Amino acid sequence: MAIPAADPGFAGPATGSRHKTQALSDRSSNMDTSIDADLASESGSAGGSARGSGSVDGSGSDDRPIVGVDGRAFSVRAFAIAFVSVAAGGFLGGALLGIVPLVGGTLGNALGIVAAAFLVGAVGADRRYVETGLAGAGIGTASALAGLVSVGVLPVGIQFLREYGFGVAAFGAAVGLALTLVGYYFGRDLRDGLTRNIDR
């Protein structure tokens, strides 16, 4: 009795099952590869953005000293810029309003200090309240003592300086500190508003 030959186009149940299993396995492998590639891409982009924004962990990309020429907590350069700016502002303000009797020079000095601190805050990239405040306190102290010494003739001014120098110096430092911090704060506020609008 002749046995019919198997049809080459016919696949039995076992063969079809193997084909289905192989197809599912290939599809699962492709999905795993795609997911791994996506995760690697996201990780790389996140790392790149973190490096670009400068936000790093405790390893510390900011290697500037705490105090120095360009220190993080205190910058000698920022202090020098603030000191020169505040001194120039006070001098120019006093010179411009010095023609007004009695209060012209004093008011001009105060307005010049505030305006100079405002410009320093608006132009500077970093927040430097400590440096600007110390500069204002120094200028206020020097202005107050200079005004005390200039009272009357020189011997009288020296006598006033001996008697009231400490109190006058403390008052000048407090006024200079307050004026510079007020001006600097509004300068920083203006800069933050402008940069926020640009970023948007």
Any overview of this molecule?
This protein has 200 residues and is an all-alpha fold. The chain has helices at 13-53, 76-97, 104-123, 129-149, 154-199; strands spanning 67-68, 74-75. The chain has a two-stranded parallel sheet with strand order 1-2. α3 (104-123) packs parallel to α5 (154-199).
Sketch the major β-sheet: 2 strands, parallel
Helix/strand/pairing category: mainly alpha
Rg from Cα: 37 Å
Strand order of the largest sheet: 1-2
N- and C-termini, Cα separation: 88 Å
Low-pLDDT parts are: 5-17, 42-59
Q: Give me the strand/helix succession.
A: HEEHHHH
* DSSP strand content: under 5%
Mean pLDDT: 74
Query: Which descriptor suits the 3D outline?
Result: globular
> How many helices does DSSP assign?
5
Share of helix, binned: over 70%
* Number of DSSP E strands: 2
Summary, kept brief:
The protein has helices spanning 13-53, 76-97, 104-123, 129-149, 154-199, and strands at residues 67-68, 74-75.
Chain-wise SSE layout:
Layout: H1 13-53, E1 67-68, E2 74-75, H2 76-97, H3 104-123, H4 129-149, H5 154-199
Parallel strand pairs: 1-2
Helix pairs in contact: 2-3, 2-4, 3-5, 4-5
